[in-house]
Amino acid sequence: MTHPTTAASVPLDTRPLTQRVDRADARAFTKELRASRRIENEVMASIIGYGVALLFFVGLVLLDVLTSRSPFRVALSEATPLIVVLLVCALVAVAVTFFSQGRVSTRRYRLDRFARANGMRYVPEKGNPSFPGMIFGSGSYRRSFDVVQGKGPRRVEFANYVYTTGSGKHRRTHRWGYVAVKLDIPLPHIVLDATGNNSLFGSNLPTLYKKEQRLSLEGDFDRHFALYCPEGYERDALYLFTPDVMARFIDNAAELDVEIVDDWLLMYTKRNASTTDPATWEWLFGAVAAVLDKLDQWERWRDERMLQAASGDSRAAHGRARGGTPAGSLPFAAPAGLLRPPPGVAPQGRRLTTRFPWLLTGLCVVAVVLYLLLDLPG
Question: Do the beta carbons of residue 179 and residue 172 sit within 8 Å?
């Protein structure tokens, strides 16, 4: 499959993901990535870090020896076992680093060959991906890893994503896999929260939306997805999610959270999207192909509010030209070029309204209070 364009494309070639890899080839590929500055030398950075930590702890031990009241030789002999343990720990850490780096090099080599075999390209990592979706604007240290990008005709990107929130002991790392598909026109902000991947406390998404924006659809769709669209855009959502489109999402993307925002279609999963597992790629390619096969229908959509806004601006301008006559009192026809709204979304449809997770926050507060009360002496 050269790129996920239609469901009838050439079958996906997953053989490079599982074929035996010569270690020399993997090392040479990693060396090429470092030479082109597409990755840093993680092994060297780790070794330097272990060395600094070892010198620090050995220095503390030697300082204790020098300040000990015992004779120097006695204190040193007592501290020698601890120094040996520190050295062994450092050597084990270096060995583990080399072993894990070998696995990383093999994974990168396989993903690169897989991308090439299917007419795509592999990017080891990139910082601060510029997608407008809900997971891309939170936290810090935002990075995509093992990025596999389609070369055309439509931009498609598969990757794993990580970002951090909080600081100190409250620092938390969030990991996602995503698929990003470029659309030809902007569409209203729509979120499909898959029910199959929710937790005990509800949605696993990092952003919650006001319940007034939830739209119930026919058939079994509500059993698989909770669909949110901006208020006033219910008819537009029904136009985009016709029964055949809903059936495709249920059959191919029921475990994926989906977000349509601006001119992007984004699919999220809590596991790696870019992996050496052939079944995962077949699943994701199937989901993308099923959606792309219906994008022609979506790209005919136009926001009538854009035409109303343009007509209103023209009436206001016409009124000003006639000495400030109120625009509403003039019989005004839209210009011929505006008989069909231009591509775009009116401001009220560009973003959903979010809500604060009061219930979860309340439960956390109650849990903390109970813990403090139970921990009190007596």
Answer: no
